[in-house]
Amino acid sequence: MEYLIIDGYNVIGNWPELKRLSAASLEDAREKLVEILAEYQAFTGKQIIIVFDAYRSKGRKETENRPGIEIRYTEHGQTADTLIESLAAQLSPRHAVGVVTSDWAQQQIVMGKGARRWSSREFRLEVHKVAGEISNAAGRTATDRPAVDLAARINEKSRQKLENIIGKNRKS
Q: N or C: which end of the chain has fewer CB within 10 A?
């Protein structure tokens, strides 16, 4: 199983659409990020852990679980960086782990713990690529598939009746 540990506020601050949204409502930006990642998770199957600093979320210390996504808020006074480092150290020996943050020092620390690092910008490109794949997959309709001849889908007796009707109509 592959894990992605995401520095939530770092991503929000580095993705233009989320940064604009956070200026009006940080709660809405968090929820939009979770929504984007839920779609990404459903398509890729990667387990996602999003970490938010508690000091920016009114001191709430909790874990919220959604299908394939765990949302973690740090304890008051604990930074997202320390929780991310701890999670990377715990998971890396048994799983492939990626960490998404644009914090250079944080990237170096998690790579030292055996995790792969993605900048928020690189991960945004990955998410957009996967969203395109999802759109392409969802856009394939019955008209996109090769046509199947009706004669191949019905029994011989019905096929003969249809041929007779078509033949009679051509003579008229």
A: C
